[in-house]
Amino acid sequence: MATKSLERLILEFNKLPGVGIKSATRYAFFMLNQSKEEVENFIEALHTVKEKVKKCTICGNFCESDICDICSDSLREKSIICVVEESKDIVTLEKTTKFRGTYHVLEGRLDPLNGIGPNELNIKSLIQRIADNDIKEIILATNPNLEGETTAMYLAKLIKNFDIKVTKLASGIPMGGNIEFSDSATISRALDDRVEI
Question: What pLDDT is attached to residue 193?
Fold first, then answer.
């Protein structure tokens, strides 16, 4: 039987996505067996990331300055924006080294059943970016599930008013799958075969 403090730690680990009670217990006992210095380093890393990491004022990606490295990179193609649901999707897309444009993070997807509508997403700043800049193409890289497809269709209708090319990732990412868990070859093919919608 675990002590109260150990039970609390297990419950905290159990709050992490994809971590069941068995994994949470394993993590808690792992931390218990670490030296005080190793635990303090872990705690400091958590504090530092919460203090230093913020959202890019242009795209909404996580960064440690006002503008992320991708938005500030003069070699990136600023006229092409790839719209993703979460910052973690950018990491996956960047691993392919195929895409040289910029990104826009929605911070989620439309999900009316759970109270997530257009006002809860980072859509207004996307529309403002399109209105204020010479954008040639928007790539909708939402996940191929019901919520992702609904979000893509909603955005496509909004963006069509600007008379610019709107594409989405082609097949390669299975319906119901997540960009985060797709391999680089699959993402590369999806970027290459994107289609206008």
Answer: 72
